[in-house]
């Protein structure tokens, strides 16, 4: 999609722009209360924050007018809802709200959560059809805010293998990118044909790929979601209805994985699920790939990555003068992010994201190199630097594919720039969601993995925040030694683990580890869901 036309000259899309989809180099916009209130009210800046917003106006001439224009541009996504008769399964949240569940064979209880506003409709896709990715079915979770997802059943033992949720980032980028370019059963080639993937993550697991937040990919809504916390409510409802409708999967281990802005999503989604004592979601672990989770710590590692101090043979990319400018900007950047951490106010969080992205990501983007893989130039700027992104969009916009999958929107796009801007101006970007991880570690294993050629959510930053995290196993985790990850007697990365916390560096891989290291990624994924690294 390229840069946003409004702020392109100055702002860089930061780490979270999603996995392939993360490949999107765009700018963010929209303001928290603007999603719910009148624009004029939103732009009444508190006195204590006025100085920061005045700085933005100097940094980006006409910023306030442009922000207001972005908010005003929000429109419902064109769609045509199909009648329930066209679906194989229809489940209404209101009908199961008071139902009893019996997961452990001892205690019967009601499912927690408000599900009245949510419905699920599902259909099965013929494996021989052009829309199939082999052993796949499509689940369309149509709620007050409809969300679409595709489930690729395990090639091995669907009745017993784990169930995995995969999330691309953005925010606002479709997980169909992960499905058709990274880890799904098939990829899409230049001729829009499906190519079998020998290293699909559904080799030993059933994998759900979901378009979320609403208005991402095939999903649509008359309203909007502009924060990770709000999105977590939809995800909890979706999974609750999914496992109710497909109880054969509800007893199997369930894992959440994803990339990029999923570094925000996953800690919040997992915390939301675990907050419900009476649930039908058997969450066993989470895994975050090249994620944005602790911005204050991670932004400090952009300069080393761009300037050849990352301990690899990839750099340097930037000139010394640019590296010095990044050094000069870092203290201000981290001070602004700390202000966001302390207040979690939109008025502090928005300026921190814009200033830091401009100062620490902008120089690299302007170099012409691919922010998702520093080993190469951005070959296709209009398509997230990867031609595969265009092929996937063309494939998913074919009428026969849309009909087979039950799509109700008029067209598919890999990333929704308006949604992306809404999250930024809602202050979501710089928030400290890493603070949720210590409590998660008390309950489930957590994996942080990163391809070491990625810039935008680089491995240095992910290792740094993992080691900076304050939890009861910090000392042992930090002193743990990195050991080789090997497949076929060849090292493809390194791993260190202690208690329920694991970190991996994956060699010769960019932002999309399964795309660059298919065999290695399947190896560590199978070992992870098999329980090799846990307390």
From TrEMBL:
Q: Name one Pfam family in it.
A: Peptidase_S10
The residue ranges flagged as biased composition, category Low complexity, are 128-154
Listed EC numbers: 3.4.16.-
The question of whether Transit peptide is a record keyword is answered with: no
**Major place of residence:** other
Location of the region described as Disordered in the Swiss-Prot/TrEMBL record:
123-161
The secretion signal range is 1-22
PROSITE patterns reported in the protein's UniProt record? CARBOXYPEPT_SER_SER
Q: Where is the Propeptide carboxypeptidase Y domain?
A: 31-97
Which family, according to the similarity comment? Belongs to the peptidase S10 family.
Instruction: Write the protein's name.
Output: Carboxypeptidase
